[in-house]
Amino acid sequence: MTRVRALTTNPIFLIITVITLGLCLRMPILSVSPLLDTITTDLHLSAAAAGWLSTIPVLCFGTVALTAPWLLRRWPMDTLLLAMFLIILSGLLLRTLPPVWLLYGGTMLVGAGIAVSNVIMPGFIKREAPNRVGQTTALYSAAISASGAIGAGLTIPIMNAFNLDWRGAMRWPAVVYLIGIGILIPWQFSKSNRTLSGRGRSEARINLWRNKVAWYVTGYMGMQSFLFFSTSGWLPTYLISEGMDEQRAGFMLSLSPLLGVAGSFIAPLLVYKRQDQCWLVWMSSAFCATGLIGMILWPLTGTILWVSFFGFGSGMTLSIALTFIGLRTPDSHHAAELSMMSQAVGYTIAAIGPISIGLAHDLIGNWQVPFTLILAGVIVLTWVGIGGGKTRLVSTHG
């Protein structure tokens, strides 16, 4: 028992934990996108109905995230993470079973488990690495981006290599979750595995809902999620409609978060180069806008370049959003509270993305206009990012 507890004080094990958990938190969602066209055809779904498979997890990110502070006051942080990973694993398996309602029901379980895990992780990082928030967040956000790349890039090759149908292809991320569950078991014996009680509970009750800084951070989280999920949810379908083959379109989807790994890793390492982070907000928005403009105007010419620009920029925006949570709060309790608010409201904003893009396509009949709506979101992203990028704390600024 003592050896197991000591393991959690080892910085290398913390790095392994952060990277492993990050690798799990987008894979189940992005692994669906390359299969959307096949699922739509097999189950005779409309584009809007298929869009719910990308929208449901994001809706869960917004609604279920609200329960995280309540759960954290009743169960230890590490125990709650383990429970969420077990719920996600159950949902991964259930969504591959007939009838069709289990596809949506299992997706809800996956989204709910990831939603609470999303909220917990910034507080976990703040607790375990209070003096290395930027560096640890860099590893975490890079792992999240890699998770999306792995989910999007390996699904079709695994499907073809093992001659699987789409249901079988959706099961493979369960293997990664089993590894994550194994990593989480030693943390159950950690001395820091406790509920938010006493002084911490009191501090966590700051009214962030009336705090200007908290709303800027929340808006930035929402808009970067809107851009990412709207684009990744429909990019393969868009490219296939333009004449690209299915496997190459899946590769393009995997390329975006793969470049996002670099953007996610680099951005948190640059946050201390200047007094505030506004310049990073401008830089990341420029990458995203360039990529989207290229996709709209020349979808089959220079596609790799446009997807790379967008992927790198969206990776930066994700890590900036997560780093804001740590930089704008004085301790892990405030971080957990701001994480809940920013992800609950932010992902609710993001949830309208995939479904609205699908509806816009159904109404208009092309993909250029829906993707132009995504491009317009970059303007809002930049505005709220500048507000969140100024050096100040939520506890000292209203």
Give a brief description.
The chain has 18 helices and no strands.
What number is the mean pLDDT? 84
The tally of domains stands at 1
Number of DSSP strands? 0
Q: Please compute the radius of gyration using only Cα atoms.
A: 20 Å
Order of helices and strands: HHHHHHHHHHHHHHHHHH
Outline = globular
Main CATH class: Mainly Alpha
Helix content: over 70%
CATH domain topology: Growth Hormone, Chain: A
Give the strand content: under 5%
**What would you call the structural class?**
mainly alpha
Corresponding CATH superfamily:
MFS general substrate transporter like domains
Largest sheet: none
What's the architecture in CATH terms? Up-down Bundle
Helical segment count? 18
Low-confidence stretches at least 5 residues in length (pLDDT < 50)?
197-204
Distance between the termini: 45 Å
Give structural notes.
This protein is an all-alpha fold and 398 residues long. It has a single domain (2-389), classed as Growth Hormone, Chain: A (Up-down Bundle), CATH 1.20.1250.20. 77% of the residues lie in helices and 0% in strands. The protein has helices at residues 2-7, 11-24, 27-30, 36-43, 47-63, 68-72, 77-94, 100-128, 133-161, 166-169, 173-184, 199-203, 212-241, 246-270, 278-297, 303-327, 332-364, 368-389. The longest helix has 33 residues, at 332-364. Mean pLDDT is 84; it is low at 197-204.
Can you tag this structure with a few keywords?
single chain; 398 residues; Growth Hormone, Chain: A
